[in-house]
Amino acid sequence: xxxxxxxQTTTVYRVTGMTCGHCEGAVTTEISxxxxxxxxxxxxxxxxxxxxxxxxxxxEDVAAAVDEAGYAFAGRAA
Length: 78
What we know:
Blueprint lengths: L1 E3 L4 E8 L4 H12 L4 E7 L4 E6 L5 H11 L2 E5 L2
Antiparallel strand pairs: 1-2, 2-4, 2-5, 3-4
């Protein structure tokens, strides 16, 4: 799911394997390091990660960041 405004893009991704606040923090840290990202909110209970960025991010870049954090990228939320 992606929503665009005049200045920012909000996309919700699915990540599997997160079980706690530490998991959320690891995913948030890695995705936050991507160029253009201004906000990341990871929720272990739902497996959803909401990312606000200046432009749409490539799924491959987000997947690589999630992998670096030690979790599995499951695509965009419906």
